[in-house]
Amino acid sequence: MKALNPATLAAPFGAYSHGTEIPAGKRIVRTSGQLAIQPNGFIPQGAYEQATLCFQSISAILAEAGMTASDVAHISAYVTDRQFMADYMRARDEFVGGAARLPSSTLVIVSGFTRPEFKVEVEVLAAA
Question: Which of 55, 57, 120, 123 is deepest in the core (most CB within 10 A)?
């Protein structure tokens, strides 16, 4: 995959690229939006902990397909308040690590999710 960051655009605000090119012949994985709920039903209270759990779930889905975070082409995330943006971005940055090619990314503030205790939801598009 190739990161697309035209010199004619302002630099991205964080650890992401403006676009990602996926070459022909790659297998594609698209996850559903992952919410921060453990198998036993526990939901962490903090936005950072929720985002981290979302990325752990995504990592498990990617592993099922023989992929890792380095195969992620795009991340879409949703938070319920601006105050949760920094915590989400910290978890996202840990997920993508020091990758040579950063995925494209979208972050949207939404009014809520299916249950009021959820603060973060994350989905990805990956290719390998």
Answer: 120
pTM of the model: 0.94
Q: What is the CATH number of the domain that holds 99?
A: 3.30.1330.40
Non-local (6+) Cβ contacts of 21 within 8 A are: 1, 2, 4
Looking at residue 113, the DSSP 8-state letter turns out to be -
Phi, psi of 56 (to 5 degrees): -65, -40
Question: Domain span at residue 64?
Answer: 2-127
Q: Is the dihedral of CA 16, 31, 116, 108 positive or negative?
A: positive
What are 78's two structure tokens? 């949703």
Joined together, the tokens standing for residue 14 give 């964080």
List, for residues 2-18, the tens digit of each pLDDT value: 999 999 999 998 889 99
Structure confidence by residue, pLDDT tens digits, 14-58: 889 999 999 999 999 999 999 999 999 999 999 999 999 999 999
One-letter amino acid for residue 104 of the chain: S
Give, in degrees to the nearest 5, the angle at Cα 60 between 58 and 65: 95
Q: Do residues 4 and 102 lie in contact, with contact meaning Cβ atoms separated by under 8 Å?
A: no
